[in-house]
From TrEMBL:
<protein>
    <recommendedName>
        <fullName>Fe2OG dioxygenase domain-containing protein</fullName>
    </recommendedName>
</protein>
<dbReference type="InterPro" id="IPR027443">
    <property type="entry name" value="IPNS-like_sf"/>
</dbReference>
<dbReference type="GO" id="GO:0046872">
    <property type="term" value="F:metal ion binding"/>
</dbReference>
<keyword id="KW-0479">Metal-binding</keyword>
<feature type="domain" description="Fe2OG dioxygenase">
    <location>
        <begin position="30"/>
        <end position="132"/>
    </location>
</feature>
<dbReference type="InterPro" id="IPR044861">
    <property type="entry name" value="IPNS-like_FE2OG_OXY"/>
</dbReference>
<dbReference type="InterPro" id="IPR005123">
    <property type="entry name" value="Oxoglu/Fe-dep_dioxygenase_dom"/>
</dbReference>
<keyword id="KW-0408">Iron</keyword>
<dbReference type="InterPro" id="IPR050295">
    <property type="entry name" value="Plant_2OG-oxidoreductases"/>
</dbReference>
<dbReference type="Pfam" id="PF03171">
    <property type="entry name" value="2OG-FeII_Oxy"/>
</dbReference>
Length: 175
């Protein structure tokens, strides 16, 4: 999975017109955290949520949905859209630090998980996150007069801030 994440960062870099290693270099050493989500059936899904709206914090997230139950939703233009699982496919989320390194060209999308009234849902998320002391700033080639640099971000501070905000999920991740 780490090779997949590194290849994705390479492709994203090339798409930006940069050297293949540009995003990887901007993010520094990545480590993998795994989270297994089990959402049991909920007879009244209007009173429960699987995971509150949030963005992913680090580099990229590779999500594998183990069954055909729709639960992941993405926010676009103020509306929630379901993501329909495809057998054998991964869902890739660009995370917050890629948004910073790309100077906002790539967006870390808000998403959430909802429960199903009749079926359980299981997913495995592989997060590729940064060292807490890593400081990410926009790649210089992506800064211009038309697109001024967004502020640099220390990953550990960013993660701590989001963990305590009420509209974010504060994930407890074990390395």
């Amino acid at each position: 999975m780490k090779k997949l994440a590194e290849k994705l960062l390479e492709c994203l870099s090339i798409n930006l017109g940069l050297a293949p290693n540009a995003l990887k270099d901007a993010l520094g050493e990545l480590h993998q955290d795994l989270l297994i989500n089990h959402y049991p059936p909920c007879p009244n899904p209007s009173v429960a949520i699987g995971a509150n709206k949030h963005t992913d914090l680090g580099g990229v997230t590779c999500l594998w949905q183990l069954d055909d139950v729709v639960g992941l939703q993405v926010l676009k233009d103020g509306e929630w859209y379901p993501v329909h699982p495809k057998p054998g496919a991964y869902i890739i989320n660009v995370a917050d630090m890629v948004e910073v390194a790309s100077n906002g060209i790539y967006k870390s999308i808000q998403h959430r998980a909802v429960v199903n009234p009749a079926k359980r849902r299981v997913s495995i998320a592989a997060f590729y996150d940064l060292h807490p002391d890593a400081v990410v700033k926009p790649i210089p080639e992506l800064v211009s007069e038309e697109r001024p640099a967004c502020p640099a971000v220390r990953f550990g501070d960013h993660a701590m801030k989001l963990a305590i905000e009420t509209d974010k999920v504060g994930l407890k991740v074990v390395n």
